[in-house]
Amino acid sequence: MEQKPVKLLKGAEVFEADLVCGALEQEGILYFRKERGPGAMYCGGVMMGADVYVSQEDVEAATEIMEGLLKAELLPKEE
Q1: Which of 5, 14, 45, 54 could make a disulfide contact with 62, Cβ separation 3.0–4.6 Å?
Q2: Which segments of the chain does DSSP mark as H helices, in order?
Q3: What pLDDT, on a 0 to 100 scale, did the predictor assign at position 51?
Q4: Contact 25, 62 (CB under 8 A)
Q5: What is the Cα–Cα distance from 40 to 38, expressed in whole angstroms?
Q6: How many whole angstroms separate alpha carbon 59 and alpha carbon 40?
Q7: What is the phi/psi pair of residue 66, to 5°?
Q8: Could you tell me the pLDDT band of residue 7, with boundaries at 50, 70 and 90?
Q9: What is the C-alpha to C-alpha distance for residues 65 and 10, in angstroms, rounded to an integer?
Q10: pTM to 2 decimals?
């Protein structure tokens, strides 16, 4: 049975996506990163953000990793 990817991070700044993807990679969790916008650039350099997806079976572990980054204040808190 094919599993659909789950969106872990939506519209993240480039540095946020880099932090999360680096932490996932370090823990051996496979991910897919999709840059938003036309070629990820728009109007002379304005970044549109990135989405990060993981498999359904890795969602719990990936969420724990993101929570750890939030607690360490490496990621900004959503308002």
Answers
A1: 54
A2: 14-26, 59-71
A3: 93
A4: no
A5: 5
A6: 25
A7: -65, -40
A8: very high
A9: 16
A10: 0.77
Q: Which residue has the tokens 């932090």?
A: 19
Quick check: 78 pLDDT over 90?
A: no
Secondary structure element (H or E) that encloses residue 17, with its range? helix 14-26
Tokens of 37: 């916008």
Instruction: Report the distance separating Cα 19 and Cα 44, nearest Å.
Output: 25
Q: What is the DSSP letter of 43?
A: T
Token pair in block for residue 69: 């980054």
Per-residue model confidence as pLDDT tens digits over 22-70: 999 999 999 999 987 665 444 555 567 899 999 999 999 999 998 888 8
Q: How many helices (H) and strands (E) does the chain have?
A: 2, 5
